[in-house]
Amino acid sequence: MNYWLIKSEPFEYSYDDLVKEKRTMWDGIRNFAARKHLRAMQKGDRVLFYHSRKGLEIVGVCEVVKEHYPDPTAEKGDWSVVDVVPLKKLNKPVSLKTIKATPELQDMALVRISRLSVSPVAGHHFERILTLGETVL
């Protein structure tokens, strides 16, 4: 199993929206590095859900249930989507400030390449985020 992080502005699409819908197609990725990560996602992979721009915090965990396929929203270009379902909202959101202040999380892509909307997460980082979020899956 691999671990990932996806970002969304909560006023556009929040983790609560995902919970209400029960499943979503993660579309609209228009960055080549993020597309590469999206295409590497496999069914069963776990994904941290990060609220960007407002909140700046990891709020939940979801799971990839359908591997990459062509993005039907793309008017041109070779873009992909995956389908995800919610697994669990974190008991305590983990803020970017907390992540940056946690020494063992300093090399997370979220910290190093902050603009990337889809990024890999190391297993030990994933577990540390769950601990900081007081959450057990």
Protein described:
- The protein is of the alpha+beta class and 137 residues long.
- It has helices at 15-21, 32-40, 96-101, 109-112, 123-132; strands spanning 3-8, 24-26, 46-51, 57-70, 80-95, 118-121.
- It has one domain (3-132): ph1033 like domains (ph1033 like fold).
- The chain contains 5 helices and 6 strands; from the N terminus they run E-H-E-H-E-E-E-H-H-E-H.
- Strands 2-5-4-3-1-6 form a 6-stranded mixed β-sheet.
- A hairpin with a 5-residue loop joins strand 3 (46-51) and strand 4 (57-70).
- The mean pLDDT is 96.
Secondary-structure topology with pairs:
Blueprint: E1 3-8, H1 15-21, E2 24-26, H2 32-40, E3 46-51, E4 57-70, E5 80-95, H3 96-101, H4 109-112, E6 118-121, H5 123-132
Parallel strand pairs: 1-3
Antiparallel strand pairs: 1-6, 2-5, 3-4, 4-5
> Terminal Cα separation, in Å?
14 Å
Number of domains: 1
- CATH H level: which superfamily? ph1033 like domains
**Radius of gyration over C-alpha positions, nearest whole angstrom:** 14 Å
Percent range for β-strand residues: 35-45%
Enumerate the spans where pLDDT stays under 50 for 5 or more consecutive residues: none
Largest sheet: 6 strands, mixed
CATH fold annotation: ph1033 like fold
Mean pLDDT: 96
The computed structural class is: alpha+beta
* Run of helices and strands: EHEHEEEHHEH
Helicity range: 25-40%
The number of strands is 6
Global shape: globular
